[in-house]
UniProtKB/TrEMBL annotation:
This is Pseudouridine synthase. Keywords: Isomerase, RNA-binding. Its EC number is 5.4.99.-. GO terms for biological process: enzyme-directed rRNA pseudouridine synthesis. InterPro entries: PsdUridine_s_RsuA/RluB/E/F_cat, PsdUridine_synth_cat_dom_sf, PsdUridine_synth_RsuA/RluA, PsdUridine_synth_RsuA/RluB/E/F, PsdUridine_synth_RsuA/RluB_CS, RsuA_PseudoU_synthase, S4_RNA-bd, S4_RNA-bd_sf. It comes from Candidatus Nomurabacteria bacterium GW2011_GWC2_42_20. The keyword Thylakoid does not apply. It is an enzyme of class 5 (isomerase). Residues 8-65 form the RNA-binding S4 domain. GO terms for molecular function: RNA binding; rRNA pseudouridine synthase activity. Belongs to the pseudouridine synthase RsuA family. PANTHER family: PSEUDOURIDINE SYNTHASE FAMILY PROTEIN-RELATED, RNA-BINDING S4 DOMAIN-CONTAINING PROTEIN.
Amino acid sequence: MEPIEFPVRLNRYLAHKGYSTRRGADELITKGLVKINNKIAVLGDKVESPDDIVEVSAKVIAKIEGSYRYLAYYKPRGISTDTQTEGESIKSSLPALRGLFPLGRLDKDSEGLVILTNDGRLTDRVLSPDRVHEKEYLVKVDKKITDTFIRHLERGVLIETYKTKPSKARRAGETLFRIVLTEGKKHQIRRMCAAEGYQVLELKRLRIMNIKLGDLKEGAYRDITGEELAELKKSIGLQ
């Protein structure tokens, strides 16, 4: 799901967040079931910025909660998370899960954990640059890892004109390391390694916040439910 641009009409905002269709959103607004910044919304209202507080009636939320799905999926290498591009993508490889979208992206040449959902409320709460959520990766590079390399990854690496935020990194083998990031710049790990003179040969995402890849096989998925789902929602303010 692509990020939404502000200002945006309230009905489109609600549809984007997965509360209803645009027509359904108009009905919710007409019935006085939606508020913007603690004021009951009316048809034609706009959400001016991400800082606006949009509230939907608890009764409505309770009704639609049961229709949300949350999946942990092991994306194989060669599969794109961009549903708009040509070639093999999550959308084409998992036709039974139409209606779900990947929460964020993972490079086509990378593999590992992707969260799939139809709950648009998660998008900004997980992907916004202002949020600090951990993502853990296992990376294989083309030559022996040094202490200096690990230290630079942890302190931040200058990629072009941007210095990456501090991270947690540790050696996992002669040419393997684990790294935990709290940001998600495009091709960030590959660019960080390149800046230090290393080439990434393999990259696997192991964890997004409390959701772990675990023993999932390539191309397989599982439902995120129970305590695992409750912890995820709590960490992003949905409970």
